[in-house]
Amino acid sequence: MTDFPTGAETGPPSPRRSFDDLLGDCVHCGFCLPTCPTYVLWGEEMDSPRGRIHLMAQTRDDVLTPEVVQHFDRCLGCLACVSSCPSGVRYDSLIESTRARVEAEHQRGPRERLLRALVFALFPYRRRLDLLRGPLRAYRACGASAWLRRSGVLERVSPSLAAMERVAPPLRTVPALPGRLPAVGRRRAVVGLLTGCVQGSLLPQVNTATARVLASEGCEVLTPRAQGCCGALSAHSGRAAEAARFARATVETFERAGVDTVVVNSAGCGSSMKHYADVLAEAGAGPSWERRARALSARTADLTEFLVRLGPVAERHPLPVRAAYHDACHLSHGQGVRDQPRELLRAIPGLELLDLPDPDLCCGSAGVYNLLRPDAARELGDRKAGNLRSTGARLLVTGNPGCSLQIASAMERGGHPVSVAHPAQVLDASIRGLDASALLEDAP
Amino acid sequence: MPDAMTGPAALAPRLRAVCGADGVVTDPARRRTYESDGITYHSAVPGIVVLPETTGQVAAVVRLCAEHGVPFVPRGSGTGLSGGALPRPDGVLVVTSRMRRVIEVDIPNERAVVQPGVFNLDVTRAAAPHGYHYAPDPSSRQVCSVGGNIAENSGGAHCLKYGFTVNHVTGLEIVTPRGDVVRLGGKAPDAPGYDLIGVFVGSEGTLGIATEITVRLTRAPQRTSTLLAAFPTMDAGGRAVSAIIAAGVLPAAVEMMDALAVEAAEAAVRCGYPEGAGAVLIVELDGAAEDVAAQFEAVTALCRAAGAFAVRAADDPAERARIWKGRRSAFAAVGRISPAYIVQDGVVPRTALGGVLARISELSARSGIRVANVFHAGDGNLHPLVLFDDAEPGAAERAAEVSGAILDLCVEHGGSITGEHGVGVDKACHMPRMFSDDDLATMDLFRRAFDPDGIANPEKVLPTPRLCGERPGVVRGEHPLVASGQAELF
């Protein structure tokens, strides 16, 4: 497996290669085809990475027709093709530039515009998501949710709204994280925690568990209050200026915090933060911002990556459970983090770690893809659910909020609800010596 | 441009009735993504693209083509390396990528029945839980389709011991160029009468389209051992290969890569080959555990005797996978060390390997065009990778010249212009270097027995004046054998 550059290189910034130059790297071998979720679904060239790169080259100096744009829109941005490419094609850069171009030049239909406006006015804003918590809880409690799902009304009105309803998790209230959590025992590191928008608002228990695990391993955990969205959702959807605005704010926040490492527990956020220099360059930021972005990227680590590097000190108590680990695309393909979460889980006594068939195939969540392309996302979700069922696992462990919500929803739809937990929650339960049943009930 | 009223575009409504709106591609930009297969220096935008899902749909599409005299070109995953799936602007491209169902895995009979669009590796994946695999293993096995393998009679690293695709197909359902559905063979081996499966496998889409394929499954060996040996020179590596074969050992695979190919593979997948090697040899031994152990000792000793400075064994699957990953990625990996390249495919008798490699080096030095060498050393199948910069004026032409000269070398040494990639459009003009006009005329007559109107993948395999320029002796009009009464068309 090709190691994807993490963007954490500390050397002098290499000159940014032009879009045309990057296009030229593809030799048309087709090794990406079987790894591409949309090619797996539809089996046509235009919905494969090779075909999309061909379309990018074709339309380089041409207008973007709706026929062409649909194929860029259908890409999940899972980056499985980047892992499978022997020629080192930077499809991630190519699709991000292309999406920015689509947003700048292509006029979408009114319905699509409205949906996108709604999604991007909501998800990157923690406070707006928080405002939804009350109504969402009331809605769940009054039984309207079950009625609405059974009736299929929402599905008929808008498949996207239906998808949004389906993946919304039951909410839990957890105490807010303190700005500074002291290390347990000898202090081994000072880390900053990115709380994220979706994670922070809809799955706050994951952040709590993350902070507790870090503290138990001897980290002083700083959670800056001022932090906002990291910009990943915007960057992955071609909203370059918005993404750069979020990126600059995040860089400033963690520069001020004065931490050794920024720990991220959401795969999509981590992947984006490790490529901040590209995000800022895409929006035309100058070299000084690029340097600051690179410095932050170099200090950014996924929770599991960081914990393996740090080495364990806290005792792990037995947690007898059959668990399957799902690779979030932006961890495995986006950051090359595959072994670390498995290593941490295997080190828990009594935990039986099962392999999912087709581990490299996206579950269909892909940021806000499941809201924008609900049909394709649903089909991929069903595939992942089928694979998960075949393992007989009682618990699914995964490091991205989107994947958690998407897979839980697909399992429920298939009539086989399963518990889903973040690696942080599993480690937390083991370190605190909780019973496995707590974890099985605790999941979203 | 074909006339919209008479060309393939005119067939669109009827093709939609067969394959559904979703199964017919007419938009120019979308169609154009199919303009090339695995080699991009041949390209042509197909007149129309269809994506059938059933044998019935393929037959109906081909019948429409036959009725209207419109040419058709079959295509699988589009990974071919001879332009065998190069589309026709005046034709229909029939893509089998949606026909990807493994219909049956019949372990007691050691057979699998699959649709043509199934990825080669997916046959092995389906059989693996039962302790079986599908033996032919092209380097692109995770993506190339079984249908494409049938068309090209594809090989792979393990064909040295296990044979090519043709040795692993026992039954076919095909759609003939007239649109008839015909079954050849079945699960039983060796159907009596003419070996029509042997005829069809390797026919490169000129005799019809395979729509269902029955393949032999091979029991996974009790033990597999892989050995990686590094030599200072290609010559020393070649000597080791000869010594291994002379000792009566039949490895499952013997692969050799030169320094340039190793550099590319390292850059792509960090496969951890020994540093400073002029040649790297991968020898895989499989079979009964005791035999493999004994052969392993013998091969290690022979490699050392031939001058290997490092010999490493890989018994665990992860290490073995890494060694093979380097080899399998070699073609595309060259993209990391060169802006453009040509993958060549030729065969020489194993004993001529050393001589031919020396001549290739001379060619490379004289032309200033770098050549990386990757090959199935056990059966003398060379894959020189001719590297050039397509931005440099004239470089592509010089590379093509070197590439062609390499094929001449192969023929000169009693070899062949292709080992496993097929002739396609890329090598059709090289056919006269191996075959006489009479040979080619007979092949053409044979082809016409299946495809009297010449609509099945025209201008592939056999040279034509349009493709290769006017040449005395090229058959046009009535076939001489027909004219002389020695043969008749039916």
**Strand residue percentage of chain A:** 5-15%
User: Could you list the spans of chain B in which at least 5 consecutive residues all have pLDDT below 50?
Assistant: 472-476
Count of alpha and pi helical runs of chain B: 18
Summed over residues and divided by their number, the pLDDT of chain B gives a mean of 91
Helical amount among residues of chain B, as a percent range? 25-40%
Terminal CA distance of chain B reads 33 Å
Shape of chain A: globular
Beta-strand segment tally of chain A: 9
Strand content of chain B: 15-25%
Instruction: Give the overall shape of chain B, derived from the CA principal axes.
Output: globular
How are strands sequenced across the largest beta sheet of chain A? Answer: 1-3-2-4-5
The tally of domains of chain B stands at 5
Please name the two chains that share the biggest interface, counting residues whose Cβ lies under 8 Å from a Cβ on the partner chain.
A-B, 32 and 40 residues
Query: What is the terminal-to-terminal distance of chain A?
Result: 32 Å
Task: Write the CATH architecture name of the largest domain in chain A.
Answer: 3-Layer(aba) Sandwich
> Rg of chain B to the nearest angstrom?
23 Å
The main β sheet of chain B shows up as: 8 strands, antiparallel
- Which structural class fits the helix and strand makeup of chain A? alpha/beta
CATH class of the largest domain in chain A: Alpha Beta
Please explain how this structure is put together.
The complex is a heterodimer of chains A (444) and B (490). Chain A has helices at residues 19-23, 37-42, 49-58, 66-74, 80-84, 91-105, 110-122, 126-141, 144-151, 153-157, 159-167, 198-202, 204-216, 232-235, 240-257, 267-273, 276-282, 287-299, 303-310, 329-335, 339-346, 369-372, 374-391, 401-413, 423-432, 436-442, and strands at residues 180-181, 189-194, 219-222, 261-264, 300-302, 321-326, 351-354, 395-398, 419-421. Chain A is an alpha/beta fold. A 5-stranded mixed beta sheet of chain A has the order 1-3-2-4-5. A 4-stranded parallel beta sheet of chain A has the order 7-6-8-9, with helices on both faces. In chain A, helix 13 packs across helix 25, helix 15 (240-257) packs across helix 18 and helix 16 (267-273) runs parallel beside helix 20 (329-335). The longest helix of chain A has 18 residues, at 240-257. Chain A is globular and about 60 Å long. Chain B has 5 domains: 8-95, Uridine Diphospho-n-acetylenolpyruvylglucosamine Reductase, domain 2 (2-Layer Sandwich), CATH 3.30.43.10; 102-219, Uridine Diphospho-n-acetylenolpyruvylglucosamine Reductase, domain 3 (2-Layer Sandwich), CATH 3.30.465.10; 223-331, 2-Layer Sandwich (Alpha-Beta Plaits), CATH 3.30.70; 338-412, Alpha-Beta Plaits (2-Layer Sandwich); 428-475 and 478-482, no CATH class. Helices cover 34% and strands 19% of the residues of chain B. In chain B, strand 5 and strand 6 (111-114) form a beta hairpin. Chain B is globular, with a radius of gyration of 23 Å. The two termini of chain B are 33 Å apart. The A-B interface holds A 1-3, 24-31, 33-34, 42-46, 50-51, 54-55, 58-59, 65, 67-68, 71, 85-88 and B 25, 27, 29-30, 32-36, 38-40, 51, 77-79, 95, 97-98, 100, 117, 119, 121, 140, 142-144, 267-270, 329, 331-336, 339, 341.
